[in-house]
Amino acid sequence: xxxxxxxxTNDQTLTAAIQTIKQHLAAGDKQPIVLDAVITDExxxxxSTMKLDPDxxxxxxxxxxxxxxxxxxxxxxxxxxxxxxxxxxx
Length: 90
Prior knowledge:
- The chain is α+β, with helices and mostly antiparallel strands and 90 residues long.
- Helices cover 41% and strands 11% of the residues.
- The protein has three helices and two strands, in the order βαβαα.
- The chain has a two-stranded parallel sheet with strand order 1-2.
């Protein structure tokens, strides 16, 4: 039994894949459908060491890590910052 494999890399291929999926479903096709969505050509972020905790890393190290990985501090706060906010609200 195999699967139907579709790969999307942009809006146009996503639209085409959705149309293909709808056609298979409408035809009663019971094969599994695998959608490989390639959303960026950048390597995934290595989360084994997230240099965001001010208790462990200097402001300089945190800043460099954020710049390197495109992590805006307001949009992607550290877990420590989130916990501090929650604690302050209690």
